[in-house]
Amino acid sequence: MARQHLVRKRSVYPEAQKLRRFPGLVQMDEDTHYNKVEDVVGSHVEDAVTFWAQNVSRNKDIMKIGCSLSEVCPHANSVFGNLDPKKIYGGLFSEDKCWYRCKVLKTISDDKCLVRYIDYGNTEILNRSDIVEIPPELQFSSIAKKYRLWGLQIPSGQEVTQFDQGRTFLGSLIFEKEIKMRIKATYQDGTVIAQAEYGTVDIGEEVAKKGFAEKCRLTSGIDASEAKKPDPNQLALRSLKNPIPLWGRRSNQSTFSRPKGHFNGRLTLDVKYETNAGNHVTFPKESLAAGDFNLGSNVSLAKIKQDQKLIEENEKLKTEKEVLLENYKALELKVEQTAQELQQEKTATMDLTKHLESTLKTCVGTRLKNLAAKVELLKEIRHINISIRFGNDLSDAMQVLDEGSFTTLASLSELEKIWAEYNVAQEKIQTCPNENEGNILIAERNEVQQKLFVAVDVFILEVDELPLDKRLKTLQDLATSLESVYGKAKEGTNSEEILRKFYDWQCTKREEFASIRSETEASLQHLVAWFQNSQKVFDLSLDEPLTSEDMIGNIDEILEKTESCVCKELELSLIEQGVVDKEIILSTYSQVLQRIHSEEKFIATMLSKYKDSVEFKKQIIDCLNKSPSVDYLLSIKKTLKGLKAQLRWKLVEKSNLEESDDHDGTEIEKIKQEITQLRSSVFQEIYHEREEYEKLNSLTQKWFPELPLLYPEIGLLKYMNSGGLLTMSLERDLLDTEPMKELSSKRPLVCSEVNGQPVLLKGYSVDVDTEGRVIQRAASYHRACGYAKEEESGLLPLIFLFMCKSDPVAYLMVPYYPKANLSAVQASMPLTSEEALKVMKGVARGLHTLHSANIIHGSLHQNNVFALNREQGIVGDFDFTKSESQRASVNMMVGGLSLLSPELKIGKPPSASSDLYAYGCLLLWLSVPNQEFETNEDGIPKVDQFHLDDNVKSLLCSLIYFRSSMTAEQVLNAECFLLPKGKTIPNTEKEIEYTQHNKEDESKIESLDRYKEKARNGEANP
């Protein structure tokens, strides 16, 4: 059977002498079974006091069950539908692929279930295909029983390691051993409370002596341990996460060969401590069942094994057949190629023979000319560096790597160790909710910080002395040089065997090449000597008689030898390397490149750690053993408080003067100027406050997580949670506001001016619950806008978020663009085709920004999409008090066309696809203004009726009909948005409309020109 997992039960089962106090037990003082002795063999251990065991008398039952299951289950139907937890099924154990009876404890998923093998006690997660129905004659009670040691319980709060050791210890006492159980009581779930003995050893006392369990304490009333008894399904699931003894492998030997439990051929306990699993114990696969198997069982098992062996042999033969077939095809191809080459050689030979016959008279001259040409070629080749053929450049590269290698740095290892300790200390501070405990953690952190500061100093000094930049440049140049010669390296594991093989190959090649060169030079010298000697034979002026045979010698042999040596060297130098040679060189090149990249990575790690160390030293040197001060922030808050008090006083003074009968206009104007100056000063300080908050936020994130804990009064945590959007220093009464009822009737909406910029204040009614959600949603939107540059985000930026102190209202400050939304623009002066595409490209960028941050807009419509200067499109914010579904529930219309996608209309949640549908409808509305839209039964507009540019029509079809496959990023890259600057999309209907429009009223064009001029100067927004 497969590897099982012990169930870690932490609940306590106290047993007492007076069992009537415990309602979870079946009292047995007067029962005939009380103190009854059973001989059992342990089969599965759950914890230090709980285990499963099989009665020795059930020996033959186990054997019969195994035989029956092996015959029935392979042909039975797999289960389907809902599984009955009370019913018994057949389960195919994953370890030995044998069938055992099981019950379903829990359905994990549609195709997986947690089961318990009822005749052994262990659990496993099985596929439904491995669970089958079994006949009624096998539907009887389990062989194995669950036992609990009398009078013992697991200590509360026991550590996992001790828990595992206790489980292992109990396993060594009871597993595969015949033990006597004196029954004391029985739980309602069938668990038997008993005293276990092995010979003269009381197993419960041994477990208690080791400290793995403790004596139960008497309680009155309800049994506390029974009340805390965990769900068996949860225990079974936990058991699958913890390795436990293997009990499930079958054996041909019998464990129960004698009636009274004296075991012949008993399988030994194989205890293996696994350090990674807390010293868990495992048992051999051969200990599946305690019982003799008859011949029929052995035959079934043998047949199964024989079939399995045949299958494996068939697979092996099939693989060998495929390999042989491939080899056959390769050989067949090679034979064909050889035949072609042979034919070519025959043709060449015939041509050569004819040529030799025709040139026989000039053979000596031709031979010498050819030899001279080859020698000339050999001279040129010798001047060329052919070291690449023998991997000399790779040898040189390895020498460079060996000589100046940076692969280890003692101070770096120490630094990383201390830095890891420092990070742990920082995390503890960050999660600490208590200031007193936090002070202790800060003190501990400061000690580590001091050590880290010293380690950083040592590391920086050591790195400063290393020529890392020079070494990195050398490695990069080396890699570039090798890649230019060998190309892209293949992936492979680092192996010294490859390098050793390369060195052996290189030495052999060098020796071979040196030998050939030596032979070539010797043969040429021999030929030169022959020519010198032959000169005397043909010199008639010499009187000394010479024998021609002695002087001339065998010139044919000399020429043959010389030609052979020259050709051999030319062949070695010019012929392409073989497959084996290439493989050796490329494998070595891959190893060299891996070493280069490994060292580059190490240097990059050092440089990165060096950069972090320098920053750490710079930030910490002034705050060593202490936290940064927030005095500057407090001074800003104090200044703000004074300025706001002055501003309020001036506002009251102005109000009093205006209400007086004899008010002085000059005095009022003077006070107004003072109020304006005070407002400017207040906002200047608020921006200073935000800058200081941002600095403290950065320090908190990187170096000092204790700041929110030490200074809760500054509200740093709120600032961080809001993404820097929330301010507690701004109040509505400090602003000169003007109601904007025409823009919104649902919530307070006022207009004001901050530093010369018109802004809107949106008021949201909030309570304790909705306030947090508003801040969270606004912060997510603000962060998404901040990840990209403001002008590139395509979103309406959020300036401030603040809470009203007198009323439950949250105010959101955003820029105000008068008459710049699409509804107002199209009503006054519709966008041209080119302008519409520019604007909608910006809107697509805004949706891409939101969707990249997993934010669904949900309420995209013509009133919250803005066309700034008629060319920059931005997406407006949404109602932060509403969820995505609530925002999308409002049916917005544009030109008689619903912006709700079909899936929203049938109640599906909003998605990026529904945002893009609304976007597509807006693009269609801008592309064909003043047109009636035909829709199908789902309310989807028909695009084909309009004469549009092909690229625009293609995009609209994708957005409206096939939007499930579209993303905002794909919309951004659509062809219609990639047109050359200045090129206008033709639109016949709009051109005719505007031509008529121009003829009717040219003054409107002049107004448009004036508007554009004002927009450029920032005087007005459409």
Summarize the structure.
By secondary structure, this protein is of the alpha+beta class.
Beta strands, count: 25
Multimeric status of the protein? single chain
* Biggest sheet overview: 5 strands, mixed, barrel
Strand content: 5-15%
Q: Low-confidence runs (pLDDT<50, min 5 residues)?
A: 1-32, 219-230, 241-300, 981-1022
In CATH, what is the class of the domain at 4-293? Answer: Mainly Beta
Question: Structural class of the helix and strand makeup?
Answer: alpha+beta
Supply the CATH architecture of the domain at 4-293: Beta Barrel
Q: What is the overall silhouette?
A: extended
Compute the CA-based radius of gyration.
45 Å
- Which strand order do you get reading across the main beta sheet? 3-4-10-13-12
**Helical segment count:** 30
Proportion of helical residues? 40-55%
Mean pLDDT, all residues: 78
Distance between the termini: 78 Å
Query: Might you state the CATH topology name of the domain at 4-293?
Result: OB fold (Dihydrolipoamide Acetyltransferase, E2P)
Protein name: Serine threonine kinase 31
Keywords: Coiled coil
GO molecular function: ATP binding; protein kinase activity
Domain Tudor: 82-141
List its salient traits.
1022 residues, alpha+beta, OB fold (Dihydrolipoamide Acetyltransferase, E2P), 5-stranded antiparallel β-sheet, 30 helices, disordered N terminus
